[in-house]
């Protein structure tokens, strides 16, 4: 039925589990993916969308590393938008609206085409652990499956409890069973567990909506895509989303249900996502606002189901219905599914190493929502990193980690394991101190060679990246060396209200002006000729534009990152005795003993550790 012993068992086929299984198998590990329902691989539990602010950058990083989320997001997209295009390139964030069913179907197809990967549908109810070393998993039917490493990606399923108004029942997601057994076993092994909650809005029948009363939200005129590979193409047709608003009447109706709300009557005690609050939470916290935005998003190409983004709620279904009917365009609304909230177990991520291996059990990894994060992209990227590291461990090779100046994924994991999280953690650009370096346009430059070295990114990907790099560098050099006459450039500058130049000069200087774009440069024959002769595509043009316009900022951040990396190089032995450092504050000694940072740089980010504590540590390390 199974192999005698797998290299890697992945428990759960959500976003984390799917990436983990793909990465481990693609790196040559015999891998088994065990999940409760093979029909729901990479199911989008909440909004049908991938990417967005900071999350779009993570998706590009996953793709650059050889993961599948970017490709699947492209092939199942129904709308593309580059968010924040009016801001600097560090903030540009790709986002797609997805066809929920296609997304899951395409993931399953990808996984089925992956070598070294077996599948099995069942609930894992426990782990086989000997002397704090993982040996395999136990299933609810009593099977024992052996493995050298195990990756847990249980998402919102561990002791999941669904709430709608004053009713609650066990479940991992609407229509799916909760998972039992694992939390208790892990606690017995010494793990600390906690409880979090999240919520989702109602889904409605598009045939019952009046879109003429809403504002249309079309996709970009020139859509782009996530994957750097040539496997996918930008969309040629798109579906629109729509915007509507709540009103004071809607708020009054919602308030009538507050006494039956699990959020307010004490039924839900755990913490929810701060940046994705329920509609009742928004009304309660921002009482002065008389309306809130709602995005009405199609769930796919060929379905009438719509997702009401911004109206997440666990109020009783009759209250949800009555209130939504008062919103413009929803007067005759019919529900497909009511909104609900879910509480689930998570494990504070300070119990993990940078590889996402647990400190307590050798060979056991955690990835995704089980680590207190929220969001598909956050989950997928952890799955990828856990899958890579489990495969490397089996091959007895060096671990693979990313620093804060290399990737958002590095920031995410470092934040989780160094600071922990007491509320569902989602990524923001503000969490990254080097966001000018961590852009969506250069994730391939940052990461593809690393992934190629460990055997994950393919040769084709590597060649594509090298080709793009070569072409981009040559084009930047062209701008540095190419002169332009006043007759050629001044009409272009005038058209953009930019001051004229009074003598011939290098193109780089004019292109670096804030309001001059690549489109303007292309009006010059020399530039257009270069583009045509060297067959430069959009990726190269975008890349070069950023490199020219933001050269100063990029250089400055590189210098700062180098400084940080110097501290990153000061390693701390794994079993270092902080209690012996009497000149360090008691709080710092206590926290560092718990977190066991690997470097002085990581130690400096632990909450409660002050600059003076870092100095003590540096002196002790002979610096
Ligand atoms: P999941 O996608 O939950 O997948 C877990 C997988 O593990 C499932 O396939 C399950 O069947 C399987 N599994 C679990 N236990 C076992 C077991 N013992 N044995 C075998 N298989 C098992 N994110 C946001 O960013 N914003 C939101 O507003 C938001 N709202 C949400 C609302 C709800 C109601 C839910 C359920 C989720 C919401 N999310 C939201 C979170 C988002 O869905 C998750 O962050 C993401 O799906 C986590 O991915 P994951 O792979 O960690 O887990």
UniProtKB/TrEMBL annotation:
Keywords: Cytoplasm, FAD, Flavoprotein, NAD, tRNA processing. One of its GO terms (cellular component) is cytosol. Its cofactor is FAD. One of its GO terms (biological process) is tRNA methylation. SUPFAM superfamilies: FAD/NAD(P)-binding domain. Its main location: cytoplasm. The keyword Repeat does not apply. It holds the Pfam family GIDA. PROSITE patterns: GIDA_1, GIDA_2. NAD(+) binds at residues 272-286. GO terms for molecular function: flavin adenine dinucleotide binding. Homodimer. Heterotetramer of two MnmE and two MnmG subunits. NAD-binding protein involved in the addition of a carboxymethylaminomethyl (cmnm) group at the wobble position (U34) of certain tRNAs, forming tRNA-cmnm(5)s(2)U34. Belongs to the MnmG family. This is tRNA uridine 5-carboxymethylaminomethyl modification enzyme MnmG.
